[in-house]
Specification:
Mean pLDDT: 90
Shape: elongated
Largest sheet: none
Radius of gyration: 20 Å
Number of helices: 9
Helix content: over 70%
Number of strands: 0
Structural class: mainly alpha
Distance between the termini: 9 Å
Strand content: under 5%
Length: about 300
Amino acid sequence: MSSTAKDLTAGTAGGIAQVLVGQPFDIVKVRMQTAPAGTYSGMLHCAGGILKNEGPLAFYKGTLTPLLGIGVCVSIQFGALEYSKRYFARQNVLNGRGGKDGMALSSSQLFVSGMFAGLANGVVSGPVEHIRIRLQTQSATNPVYAGPFDAMKKISSSYGIAGIYKGQVVTLWREALGYGIYFWAYEKLMQREMAQKGIRRDQINPSHAVLYGAAAGYALWAVIYPIDMIKSRMQTDGFSAADGQKYKSTLDCVRTVWRTEGLPAFTRGLGPTLIRSPFANGATFLGFELASRLLNNL
C-alpha cells in the first residue's frame, strides 16, 4: 500500500471516530448558533429541549451525512497534510535542514501544510456540513427533507450546484485558517516530545496523541469560532428572497449579526463546542495514529 493510501485510510478512521464522539455536541452547538437570540438560556437548556421534544436519537440527527462525509473529509485532510509534509521534508533534505530525514518541519511549513489540508478538505466539507446543518435545524414534526440524499436532491434540483455549495466562501476561510493552526499545534507538540525523549513518532504513548489532539482542538476553535458561526448562519439561510433569505453575502451576514445581535452572537454555542472539542479531536488523532501504526506494520 502506498504512503498516500495509508494516510487516506488512517484519516478515514480518525474521521469516523470524530463523528461518533462529537455529533451530540455538534447538534447542540448548531441549534444555539442558528436560533434567534433568547431561544435558549444555555447549553443545558438547549440539550434538555432536544431530549424532551425530540428524544435521545435526535442527538444523532443527520449523522449519516457526516459519518460518510466527515470520514472522507478527514481522510482528505490527513492525506493532504502528510503529502505536504513529505514535500517540505524533501526540500529540507536538499537544503540541509530538518534533521536527517528532513521531517523536523518549521512552524511556517507546518502551518502551510495545515492550510493546504484545510483547503483540500473544504471542497468536500462545505456541502457535507451544509446538508448536515439543514437536517439538524429542520422541524422534527414537519421536516422538509427525509434525509441527506433527499436534501441533496431537492436543493440541487431547485438551486443547482451553487445551492449545494451555499456558504462555501466562509467555509474555505474557516478551513484554511483553522487547520493551519490545528495541525501546527498538534505537530509541534509531537515534535517536542520526540526531541525531548529521542524517540520515533510511533513510540509516543497513544494517550499523548489524545492530549495533543485536545490541545490542537482548543487552538482551532479559539481562532475560528466566530467564522464558524457565520458559516452556520449562511448555511441555514434561505436560498432566495422568496424563501426568506436574510443575508446577501458573507460580509452582509457579519454586518447584520453585529448590528442586530452584537458581540455575544459570535460566541453563542461556544460552550458545547469547548466540551466537545477535546473528546472529538482527541479521538480523531488517536484514530489516525493507531491506524497509521497498524498499516505501517502490515
